[in-house]
Amino acid sequence: MPAQSPSEYIGLDIAAVQLDYCIGEKEEGSCENRPEGRQSLIKRLKKLAHPRVVCEASGGYEKAVVAELLAAGIEVCVVQPGRVRAFAYAEGLLAKTDRIDARLLRRFGQKMTLRLAEPADPAAATLRELLEHRRQLTEQISEVEGRLHLAGPTLAKLLQEQLTFLRQQIDTVEQMIREHIDQDPDLRKKAERLQEMKGVGPVLAATLLAYVPELGKIDSAKVSALVGVAPHPDDSGTTPKPRHVRGGRAQVRHVLYMAAITATRFNPILANFYRRLKARGKPAKVCFVAVMRKMLCVLNRMIENPNFALAQ
Prior knowledge:
The chain is an alpha/beta fold. The chain has 3 domains: 8-111, Nucleotidyltransferase, domain 5 (2-Layer Sandwich), CATH 3.30.420; 122-183; 194-312, no CATH class. Helix 2 links the parallel strand 4 (51-56) and strand 5 (75-79). The protein has helices at 35-45, 62-71, 81-91, 98-111, 122-148, 153-183, 185-194, 202-211, 220-227, 250-266, 268-279, 284-304; strands spanning 8-14, 18-22, 28-32, 51-56, 75-79. The longest helix has 31 residues, at 153-183.
């Protein structure tokens, strides 16, 4: 997103305990990744005419940093680590340290057109945390169930108690998710709107609201690419190759896949769409991805236009 005046790019490498930054060719430094250290960095950046910070998504350690920078009115671009690493390889840069990464991020921001981060909606952020906790509990249940089949009598009793506890925890967090959505008028309205489509349940609606804040704000092609259900061509010369989906937001894609399976059974329109693709010889997984993309595009339109009505 071009700025009204030239931006001064700052590369910021974020770790659990330290922030390494590169402001200019000769100005580098570091500070602690704590409130005091972050405020000292913000104070330094606010002296610049038009600072724009470029950092990587670093497993959640960037959340507090990005939030405080945005609250201070400083522009931030959060980029995928894979893109930055590919840029380093394109430069022929093989060395990797925190200081080197900060310089690399600064050059990456200067060369690439990046999307500016926006302040996170507190309600959506809380919903995302609850869904993350639910996902972790679900994974633990799968792991314990896998061990239960091979366990002896003594261990089986302990594992069964653990399963009971985990299932109770899932019931608790699902109740918290429902209450959180019901207490927020905007989330409740959007969740009810999304569930008007057959095949979309509370889990998918909550997942879209938490992980796809762009829903209804950008066109369907971009939403499909963000989630990772848009097939990309891989042709070379006169040899066409199968198209594949890649990247995107895996949390959304996993839930959307299960919803697509349900939709092909209970949603007449999507079921017919699936059967038509199968009749043309498409593999089942390709058909399911096409249903996922169709669902996402329609849901995007539903949020964008309150007057948009589903076909009966």
